[in-house]
């Protein structure tokens, strides 16, 4: 049976957490590495579970760690844990298959974005509820962006006013995400990218700097600092 959080909620959140974390360096799978003494995944799930609209959370864990992840998350929130896949897309598909009947809004949220505030979960879900098929949180690109060739010679300066850095949670009408995964071709790291390939409009909402993706060692240090200063 699938664990439920708020039976009156209309949102299922899929948390892909099966990645290795190669860019973070050698060690345990990234979602299980400690941040201020607790695994990244615990931080991420605790914040998702604090969003009032959330009915169900499904975590895709590293295949060898499913039981350990169940035990780790049991005191945090009622969560369903399934084995993830070799690519993020396969992990999301496995979690999507475990969503029970009920929630018609499905969010996909990286475990690696461990400090994402519950308010961002709510604002993405609200935009889907308002009628958007697919919603992504974004931030403006703050650096000047150059296009370069293979020899790192600058070809030109890109107009960054039309560029956005994309975060998670990404929100979808359930049927839209299901159809996108059913007809998915080459693995993409981004669910909105799958939906775009179906010709479906994707809408942006403001993201949060706290939703940074912990990818490299610097990001982990930054997250430690943010937590120690009250994030
Ligand atoms: N096979 C995979 C690969 C990634 N993810 C998850 O997708 C999220 C975003 O991926 P990323 O941060 O790029 O993580 P990794 O793939 O682990 O990073 P790296 O490329 O450095 O190994 C993470 O929460 C990660 O655990 C997953 O569930 N299954
Ligand atoms: C969905 C995503 O977080 C978009 O930023 C994605 O998982 C990024 O993965 P990447 O491998 O770092 O591009």
Automatic annotation (TrEMBL):
Going by the UniProt record, its keywords in alphabetical order are: Isoprene biosynthesis, Nucleotidyltransferase, Transferase
The enzyme's E.C. designation: 2.7.7.60
User: What GO molecular-function term can you cite, just one?
Assistant: nucleotidyltransferase activity
| InterPro entries found in the cross-reference section | IspD, IspD/TarI, IspD/TarI_cytidylyltransf_bact, ISPD_synthase_CS, Nucleotide-diphossugar_trans
> Any transmembrane segments, and where?
none
Keyword Chloroplast assigned to the entry: answer is no
Site described as Transition state stabilizer, positions? Answer: 23, 30
Q: Which reaction does it catalyse?
A: 2-C-methyl-D-erythritol 4-phosphate + CTP + H(+) = 4-CDP-2-C-methyl-D-erythritol + diphosphate
Q: In which pathway does it act?
A: Isoprenoid biosynthesis; isopentenyl diphosphate biosynthesis via DXP pathway; isopentenyl diphosphate from 1-deoxy-D-xylulose 5-phosphate: step 2/6
Renumbered to this chain, the signal peptide range is none
Q: Name one Pfam family in it.
A: IspD
Residues the record annotates as the site (Positions MEP for the nucleophilic attack) are 160, 213
Role summary: Catalyzes the formation of 4-diphosphocytidyl-2-C-methyl-D-erythritol from CTP and 2-C-methyl-D-erythritol 4-phosphate (MEP).
Write out the similarity annotation. Answer: Belongs to the IspD/TarI cytidylyltransferase family. IspD subfamily.
Matches recorded under HAMAP family: IspD
Q: Could you identify this protein by its name?
A: 2-C-methyl-D-erythritol 4-phosphate cytidylyltransferase
This protein's species is Micromonospora chalcea
């Amino acid at each position: 049976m699938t664990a439920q959080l708020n039976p009156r909620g209309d949102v299922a959140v899929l948390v892909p957490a099966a990645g290795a974390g190669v860019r973070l360096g050698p060690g345990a799978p990234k979602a299980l590495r400690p941040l201020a003494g607790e695994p990244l995944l615990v931080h991420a799930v605790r914040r998702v579970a604090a969003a009032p609209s959330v009915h169900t959370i499904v975590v895709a864990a590293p295949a060898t760690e499913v039981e350990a992840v169940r035990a780790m998350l049991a005191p945090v929130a009622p969560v369903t844990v399934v084995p993830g896949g070799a690519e993020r897309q396969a992990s999301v598909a496995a979690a999507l298959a475990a969503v029970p009947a009920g929630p018609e809004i499905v969010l996909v949220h990286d475990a690696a974005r461990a400090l994402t505030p519950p308010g961002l979960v709510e604002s993405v879900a609200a935009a889907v509820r308002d009628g958007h098929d697919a919603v992504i949180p974004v931030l403006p690109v703050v650096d000047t962006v150059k296009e370069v060739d293979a020899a790192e010679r600058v070809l030109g300066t890109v107009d960054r006013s039309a560029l956005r850095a994309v975060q998670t949670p990404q929100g979808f009408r359930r049927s839209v995400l299901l159809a996108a995964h059913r007809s998915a071709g080459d693995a993409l790291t981004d669910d909105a990218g799958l939906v775009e390939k179906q010709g479906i409009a994707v809408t942006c909402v403001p993201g949060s700097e706290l939703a940074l993706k912990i990818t490299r060692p610097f990001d982990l240090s930054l997250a430690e600092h943010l937590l120690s200063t009250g994030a």
